[in-house]
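Note to self: user wants both folds in one dump. Writing first protein now.
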Amino acid sequence: MSSHCERVRAFIAAWEARDVEDILARMTPDAAYLNVGLSEAKGREAIRATITPFVTTAAEVRWTITHIAESEDGVVLTERVDVFVIGDRTLSVPVMGAFEFEGDLISAWRDYFDLPGFQAQMA
């Protein structure tokens, strides 16, 4: 049986493969996704609308996990650096993430990152 940490690693692999359908398949139909500082997306279709621009505009996606831990209640915490290569830019974003599960699927995903730092890289 896989741990939730392994499920998060597979979720990240789906991001790196830029496979929106695989990403969404790893989430419950009513999952909630929040990039703290931005609007929350609830449900697969809202999440699809939120993540598709990142996935489709990036020529490459790399998420490097520096630390990962699973609590006794199955919540996975990640410290990572998310890299998106978009055109001639490479955006590097330090992130702390929290993943909650219902069974084998992610039911809630929150990322905490430096929004002004990300916006400066986009300018």
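First done. Writing the second protein, which came from a different request thread.
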Amino acid sequence: MEKGSEVITDAFRSYAKLNDEFVHQVIDHAESYAKGHVHTNGLENFWSLLKRGIKGTYVSVEPFHLFRYLDEQAFRFNERKDNDAGRFVKAVAGFIGKRLKYAKLIAAEGGDGPCPATAG
């Protein structure tokens, strides 16, 4: 995210430091859930769908693959208004010319590190 970008959060105090580098808009849920374009509804919807996917569809998610599940859910969420054919074309266009070796997929030697099933 670039410096000066608009960031919208709830009133959690840890976000106060965002004021230093970003245009920080805050929605205090004790007062309201939306003020014009300032709300966290989209993000809360995304997290709800992600949690439902992890608990219901994927069932068992290994921590070293979590970023992949997040990427997939972000793609699904961002393309939710497109139809199945459109999402398919965009997905295929995203992996043409790319390669994922099995060793990297399972984080085995020669991949991202030692295989968790055989480590330690």
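Dump finished. Worth passing along: The first strand starts at residue 6 and ends at 10.
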